# Entry
Amino acid sequence: MTDLDLAGRYRAYLAVLNERRLDDLVEFVQDELTYNGEPLTREQYRDLIAGDIEAIPDLFYDARIIMATDDRIACRILFDCKPEKPFLGFTPDGGRFLFAEHVFYRFVAGRIAAVDSLIDRHAVAEQLRSRAR
Amino acid sequence: MTDLDLAGRYRAYLAVLNERRLDDLVEFVQDELTYNGEPLTREQYRDLIAGDIEAIPDLFYDARIIMATDDRIACRILFDCKPEKPFLGFTPDGGRFLFAEHVFYRFVAGRIAAVDSLIDRHAVAEQLRSRAR
# Structure
């Protein structure tokens, strides 16, 4: 797969998330993967994403930078959303949150085998704090 | 500059940090840049790094993933360090901390013009919390 193909494949994966077609994850995610070093089945990974979507109904993965080389993707994703249930350990306050995720993926045979993700929880905490004043 | 050249240039930049040759930043950083969206002069950027090194004398930038495409670098950096002064808003407890940074750079004419960085403050907070029990 060329770098261009892999980037396209990754965009198709993000479309699956944004269009809530989680049954299609089988096409993009290995049966078993690691998420921040922890082993997960695809079903567990799907459950994580389903939980995020339940807490944040308007969650949209807005990829601002996508880089593809060999078997890796790096992506800077922005979220601008209104959580309705607890998320990332935070209790929502009814307002919108703007925060980033920086995430690296390793693909095996065209499907995600490893995810290393950092989410800007600090930005979420600061937004909660500034509105609580 | 090819992707390979840019990755090599980025490794040379990390060597400058790890070898504390901050005067050499002029070769790798534009006169003005943005850091997480905020405009900085190179001198201010250097001061940020110098402050980190002062707080964490054994700070070592251990690049685990480096991706280069066109004018961009993405890097996953691991830190395994013993802070001696307050860092990232935390008060050190004398112990070691293991945490990651996921960072995207945009280069202009071979020098850094923009940095978007996420540091895993959550991991630092968890390590502090678990040792305080």
Observations:
- Chain B touches chain A at residues 3, 65, 67-69, 72, 74, 76, 100-104, 116, 118-122 (CB under 8 Å).
- Strands of chain B lie at 29-35, 38-41, 62-69, 72-81, 97-108, 111-119.
- The CA atoms of residues 61 and 77 of chain B lie 6 Å apart.
